Amino acid sequence: DYLTKPFSMTELIARIRAVLRRIRPGLADDRVGHGDIVIDRVAHRVKRAGKEVHLGPTEFRLLDYFMQHPGRVFSREQLLDAVWGSDVYVEARTVDVHVGRLRKALNLPETVDPIRTVRSAGYALDLEG
Length: 129
Description:
single chain; 129 residues; alpha+beta; Arc Repressor Mutant, subunit A; four-stranded antiparallel sheet; two-stranded antiparallel sheet; globular
């Protein structure tokens, strides 16, 4: 594979994962689970408590980022850089809209809200309470 400069780290990581999948499919970590949420990166599917959850592409990337760092609190700016990229200008309040959509999709009856809002700090994936 080949990348031209300038390139983003997310593109580099995606290409490395693609090469690993082609060489040895077992090496790429494509399924991540935290609590009752399971995300399958290859199939682009999310399940919560065994039920399929339908997410848009941005909400999927946002959940994937949260799943990589469970419990850690991220500010809006950190989420913008990680999910949207540092070379794109998006309002910081856009994160609130997408977190709201993610919450709406993930919150099934009789389940705890997995996204914790930390006042004046940001958001975190926290399934414990």
